[in-house]
Fold this protein.
Amino acid sequence: MSDSDFGRGRGASCPLHPDHLAQRTCTRCGNFMCDTCSEHGAQAHCPTCREREGLGRAFPLDRGNWSIGDLVEVCWDRFKREWVMLSVAAIIFFAASIMGSFISQMLSFIGGMAGSTTVIVLTTIVGTVASYVIQGMVGLGFTRMCLDVLQGQRADLGRMFSQLPKLVPYLLTMLLSFAVMLPVIILCVGVALAVFVGMSGVSLAELDLDSTESFTRAVTNTSPQVFVATFAVGIGLYIFPGMWLIMPLVLVQPAIANEEAPGPVETLKRCFAAAKGQRLGMFGTMALGCVGLMVGIILCCLPVLPALGFFQLLLCGLYLSLSKGAEEVF
């Protein structure tokens, strides 16, 4: 059943819940589904199809019963079943990243050949945006695929390219996320700069980036201990309170992929509601996932493909766990 068919059928009742209005259709059989049947948009198949295909294993964790150990166990169980397709999806994601970088570099090269500053700036901006869009859309599709796996469905590579209609909401949400991060970045840089100036005795005038000679002289005459202290303060502030404040933003991509019509403000509200009181567990989960990625890179790079698939699965599982039961907070 097409979207136009569903449009003509608006106002129809859900076959399984006659007192509920249909909100969407099953992508397998075309029957109407209410929000209860689709688990508020989380399921693409109706309960009958999920049961028929053996896809009825709903994600078992929520914010009331989850733990890092349980999350790893559930994700590992689903990963073992679909690790090959998730690894292939990781290859596609890497290929999209390389393609995006190539397009960005080519446009920058073309702009440089033009010899005009305006053209250089314009082509650089266009290239950066194009690269970000390509990587973002494929990454969002990768996330949607992982959500399907966690929600009991089979890994479908076609889902890697299913998120293009969400391009505008995605870009707006990323822009809003950057606006949320900006005060944290300013705080880290500002305090680190104050520490550097205070310990080195260098004036702000000597740090003028427009004067290469004065900047080089100021840096050369500063002891290594000052740089270590400056770096430590900046990183320390970024971790806490910086990372603590912006931790909910790691849930943005799964939140967008899990909704049919995501809005930028609503997405961020949903992520912050899901993260409320759960930041320590989120930090531990992300740290564990990063360790797995590092191990994959160290082991001659090839294992990084399944490691990336599992990391993405872990991130999506974290969102599903924390978002269930967060509706009253939102």
In short: The first helix runs from residue 3 to 8. The radius of gyration is 24 Å. The mean pLDDT is 84. Strands lie at 24-25, 32-33.
